[in-house]
């Protein structure tokens, strides 16, 4: 009988398992339309159609801590849905919907005006307002239909289990109450109405109204949430006051304390403002083993939770705006660091997690996300962030307090991560629910050969080795500094030197112009597709200077560079697809690392070319970079096309402009000093930054072209 070997597409052959989660399932609700409206606060979000409705059976709804509390939320007048005039998100936590009545018997279209005001703070709040424009009194039936299926967020993306037999209803004219209880899990949804309904029909509140000309009527609807957990500095107040900004807003206070960029380029300035708003919106304040910690979540809608890779790279980029999110990410992930071997969760001692979830499937042990550790790069990225945080803050005390975590991470890299002792970190899952690919290209076919074959596991990808090289050199710097361990520093630099030599021997492919393989498969074959991972290698510094020019030419060649950014896979490769998740799309965060790498090696023109293209992309999407772009050539379509199901906002895409600006300035903390070596393109003109925090002080800087200055400002 032939032996079936594990691959990322089938990582545990012979083990019956449900469909695994993969990166390409990160979808925005297509049936809610391109203009869908999402409001969020911490781990809570409400996704709806532009009317504010969530049709039962759709993928939208109110989700809190990975449990859908409302799966239906539909407003009708005389049995008909409302017409959409315009709807807009006001702040990340609030939205407004301008609506009108459709044509009805005895009532012309637009005869009634409606406004829905919505925000998420300490709960979900909505006000429905209506006014009659008819000269004669009108009688109408206003109906709110609610539904609560208590689906786990994982099910919302695939298929929802019917829980109706375990859901009880206790409805009154001023409250709809849904309660779900199953073994090991329970949840409740209460819809509270400020005006008692005239009747309750099933799960619907019904008001019978008679309105005279210009008479106004409103009702407030509230869904309380469990207190506190995950909600960042909740805004509270009357709905109208919140919508109009008439109550104190902690969000604005947090924004006011961040560094602020000014530029001659309106596109850059507005993109950076939007970046700050989106990063603030994605903050999570969670209790981790007894300590409340603030850190960036990964993205809306599916990833409002603690992640490894996504959170760490986002935090790395945000250090130029302030250290608080990076500090929170370091502390939270350290407290959740692996301390045992667990096949179901892929946990190993010293390993940094991949993802944390709180829904029913995780709490009852059906999913391994409490936390799940299936990532082979987060541990190295945690060490890189620790180093970068120290470089920006000189916070010796925090580094010393995390010494044991850093040593555990190093031990994981050298022992558990290196499965066969060849000096490379490889990955393969042991869990029937585990991820097949555990690098950033985490879809089942995210790592493939040039001819399209899927490699066998375990796989050592190139980016992971680059991160490991950088992590060891950075940890050596900390060993020479706050950790005061010169012997460790010498050992780490020797390890890094050996990895550098070994990597450049084993991963380099001389054919097709010379490039780095995306990885080595389980038989140590070079996985010979051309990918954007080479940009990560420049960022890590593992590329010899004499090879940098060929790597840069590969990244900027027409088959790889779309005109909007570097594609994940070259058009020369068999599986290239402009809409392929990791097979030809353009990812802003992926490009941000390439831009920093190009700057590191002195390729400033190429770095600026990518940066300017991405700023143009942001300008096309209301100054927000989507998670990923389709890889269509710029000269063909003339405008950027988002990946159809990209998250928005998505943390590492939102943080990308910070990296682009940093690269233009070539801004780095070096030995307690800020070093500036600008190459600001003429299209950008002047860049100035106020209140930049470094080394516990406030700094201002300005640059035009290749000239710049930094000065210490008064705190």
UniProtKB/TrEMBL annotation:
Name the SUPFAM superfamilies on file: Six-hairpin glycosidases
Highest taxon above the source species: Bacteria
What residues does the Mannosylglycerate hydrolase MGH1-like glycoside hydrolase domain cover?
Answer: 459-620
Locate the Putative glycogen debranching enzyme N-terminal domain: which residues?
41-221
- A Pfam family (short name) is GDE_N_bis
**Ranges for region Disordered:** 1-29
Instruction: List, in alphabetical order, the GO biological process terms annotated in this UniProt record.
Output: carbohydrate metabolic process
Protein known as: Glycogen debranching enzyme (Alpha-1,6-glucosidase)
Q: Which organism is it from?
A: Micromonospora chaiyaphumensis
